[in-house]
């Protein structure tokens, strides 16, 4: 919604058909395309980009945002973590970013100002207990980012955004929407005095797309949370 408000044409891929249907109803079809796709599956990405290619015609893809992932980072004790569960986290964030970026290259190379924004996490550099697969996937996404920047430049720039605590409840699909009340101590963890909002991340993507001398970087969007020392009291 943020990017459409800036006058961009937007394309969205998601496995949640209900959420996609809500977006289709909210935005005009001539300036937005939404497709069902599991980005961790090569065949689904291939099929989705056939449709994207038809919709774009000869137009370029100026900005790619790899935002797929599993929201809950907690996997439980390491000795109970099955390989299939581990792979689910890796595929959602890291494999998905690889597959979608690879499929996007021909369209990005049409652009005079192409950029990639990989949505990583502050958990790429700090952890809570039992978040092995999530942290590994996001750390891998950070490494993929600087590799893309070096390999695809100068034509295409690539950067990573590391969100901290972002409250997405009001932005969920209708059946999952919520408006949580945050405690004072939740807000006080952040030097800016509040929890993050989705538009904070969208604004960072727009900044990195416009910042033509920035590539291979990892930008924390966390209200200063990772800069603040917090002691148990």
From TrEMBL:
The record's keywords, sorted A to Z, are: Oxidoreductase
Please provide an example of a Pfam family that matches this protein in its UniProt record: adh_short_C2
The protein's matches in Gene3D superfamilies, at most eight in alphabetical order, are given as:
NAD(P)-binding Rossmann-like Domain
Indicate, by first and last residue, each region the UniProt record lists as having compositional bias (Basic and acidic residues): 173-194
Segments of this protein annotated with the region Disordered? 167-194
Q: Please indicate which superkingdom the organism of origin belongs to.
A: Bacteria
* InterPro entries reported in the protein's UniProt record: NAD(P)-bd_dom_sf, Sc_DH/Rdtase_CS, SDR_fam
The record's family statement is: Belongs to the short-chain dehydrogenases/reductases (SDR) family.
PANTHER family the record matches: DEHYDROGENASES, SHORT CHAIN, ESTRADIOL 17-BETA-DEHYDROGENASE 8-RELATED
Q: What is this protein called?
A: NAD(P)-dependent dehydrogenase (Short-subunit alcohol dehydrogenase family)
User: What is the originating organism of this protein?
Assistant: Qipengyuania citrea
Taxonomic placement: Bacteria, Pseudomonadati, Pseudomonadota, Alphaproteobacteria, Sphingomonadales
């Amino acid at each position: 919604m943020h990017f459409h408000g800036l006058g961009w044409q937007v394309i969205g891929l998601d496995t949640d058909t209900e959420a996609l249907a809500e977006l289709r109803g909210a935005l005009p079809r001539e300036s937005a395309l939404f497709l069902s796709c599991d980005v961790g599956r090569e065949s689904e990405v291939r099929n989705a980009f056939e449709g994207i290619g038809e919709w774009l015609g000869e137009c370029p893809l100026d900005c790619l945002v790899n935002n797929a992932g599993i929201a809950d980072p907690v996997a439980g004790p390491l000795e109970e973590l099955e390989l299939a569960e581990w792979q689910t986290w890796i595929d959602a964030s890291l494999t998905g970013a690889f597959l979608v970026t690879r499929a996007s290259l021909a369209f990005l190379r049409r652009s005079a100002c192409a950029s990639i924004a990989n949505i990583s996490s502050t958990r790429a550099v700090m952890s809570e207990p039992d978040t092995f697969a999530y942290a590994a996937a996001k750390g891998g996404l950070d490494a993929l980012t600087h590799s893309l920047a070096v390999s695809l430049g100068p034509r295409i720039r690539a950067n990573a955004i590391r969100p901290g605590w972002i409250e997405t409840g009001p932005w969920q699909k209708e059946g999952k929407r919520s408006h949580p009340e945050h405690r004072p101590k939740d807000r006080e963890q952040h030097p800016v005095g509040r929890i993050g909002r989705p538009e904070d991340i969208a604004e960072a993507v727009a900044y990195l797309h416009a910042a033509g001398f920035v590539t291979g970087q990892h930008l924390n969007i966390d209200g200063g949370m990772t800069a603040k020392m917090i002691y148990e009291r």
